[in-house]
């Protein structure tokens, strides 16, 4: 069995590596991040793993396999955090991967495949404004124009090098038999159902749509109601309709969410009719058709604005859904059954490194419950018992995949 | 007749007294404002007026009357501007008042009353965050706790002193026979009706209501639509209903507007369900009952929020409507008829110094059309011919009031 106390101690140790006075902040490319990685590399070494960095700037710890030409089974996640984030998002999956390696040793289990424990570089949106640097790099799909992004005089190119990467080597990693990532759910679905673990069948695609409505900024006192072009009033009706359309789409079998998370008005003075509203829609689904239809619906909806209101719409980004691999889903499901964990299949609404790893290898994810669904905040919490149960399932799945 | 060219030249001269590179910015308590007042005082003197400052920090120019115990007829407005404002808001009324004095001289008309030309201090919201300093001071109703407000190390108390005022002298001015203020409309009603002038029957009261809706900030990807407490979605429905309620009330005989001019969400990140919305409602009417009913309606509406959304409501300010005086309305109307100007009675949706002067003296206002209703912006424009026509009406009304 895995050692829950050791997982707890490791998570506790990593939680102490945080920016002073800001629990918990260990942002990629910061001194604290480097400290965290040094600590991780030391644990990897103590666990007998061979430590290395790949071209993507990822930290790897290898437990060599008995039949190297079979390639590697890779487990892991990321150790960076958002500003003022939690103690589990990302790092729980790295510690669990390490624990699986240690537990296999302790049980004297020799695998045919290598087992690679990975800490991906900069999964969260970093100071460079982009995310999943390491997993994109490993998959050979890191946009090369991102390398010129700079923060405080340092380019992303240099920052990746400073983490041991070689950003111009856009060579997809090969011979990965499977990739498995344990992560906290960051939602309330497992908790609501009282289920131990979630087995991810797909990572939702994300479309980000920017809409700007333009009316006319008028004096709030002197402009009669009937003669206004109030951009906020038009935007309010739009938000209501976006929400209703999302609720309608979520009623079907597919995962669907649409959220207006950014919303600002101009000029924003008490006595001025709002002349302009900018909003950002975040629409997600595991079904590409749903995303395409929602985009079409949005475009159509903007043709029905009040005559005095004009609209600009821009698709800022559009990432397709990523189905997880049936073999790995099945392996996780069988392993859950074996260790006696209750589980349910679910879609990950959140983006993860696993979405990029799925381009390279059969991939799936395992979710552990998040208390109250809180994440990206200091209150983020998952039970050590749930994480340890997840580690158990990961170990069993690895053993099963190794033997196929 | 009044001299339209002289009015144009004066407005032009004042428009040149603006913060460098910022047309047109002459904010109260700034060096530019002092420059403007120096220029005005010089014109007052050249026109034979006796220049003084009152305890409220207002600049006055008196044309002595033949029968001093009858008191004074006061005309004027304010010379301060909002940041990046227009060339007419306020200062047009000061220049017109001066022109009336000059024109009476040129026509050799001796009045029984004094004629006072006034430039009120700081009508616009100044750097101290409050408005109508000078007219409140003249009426003896300047809130004494405002005097402690500070901006860049200077108190409002000191700032009023620096303009020649004595802020602790809360003595309402006496013996004012009538107060008349010409101002630009700042709306599109006169333009839409092709009417020369507006005669203000009341200045609307203003209620400012702050509403904060609190839901729960959740991950936009992982939180199913049905389990959210989205403060923006709740706020959108509220904005829609506020607008509909205002439109309904505006259909009656009363002036009514309600505007949500400030609206902000938290945390305001693309992938986070909005957990909090703050909005500010600006509701105006000439009928106190409408304002009271709207406040009650708002309170009632907040009891119908989705169960997961809570609301806080605060009335930040509540100023009652100010009816203008029938005698002065009638005098302006008769004068308009005499000079052949088309005119309509209307409610001022905007606040003005006249609202405070109405506590001291029979008061009314005259509006000249604003192009496209634009105000508080560089595009603000009124025709000199309309302003001159207004000046003519003001002069005739003064002569008539003097003879009553
Ligand atoms: N896992 C996670 O929080 N990803 C951040 C990107 C997103 O899904 O919004
Ligand atoms: N006249 C004018 O613009 N007053 C400002 C205060 C207001 O009415 O909102």
Automatic annotation (TrEMBL), chains A, B:
Which of this chain's residues are annotated to bind Zn(2+) 1? 78, 89, 183
Binding-site positions, allantoate? 208, 271, 284
Give the Gene Ontology MF terms in alphabetical order.
Answer: hydrolase activity, acting on carbon-nitrogen (but not peptide) bonds, in linear amidines; metal ion binding
Keyword annotations of the record: Hydrolase, Metal-binding, Zinc
Where's the Peptidase M20 dimerisation domain?
Answer: 204-296
| Entry binding sites for Zn(2+) 2 | 89, 124, 376
Name the domain of life.
Bacteria
Cross-referenced SUPFAM superfamilies: Bacterial exopeptidase dimerisation domain, Zn-dependent exopeptidases
Q: How is the cofactor bound?
A: Binds 2 Zn(2+) ions per subunit.
Cofactor(s) needed: Zn(2+)
Write down a Pfam family by its short name. Answer: Peptidase_M20
The similarity annotation says:
Belongs to the peptidase M20 family.
**Listed name of the protein:** Zn-dependent hydrolase
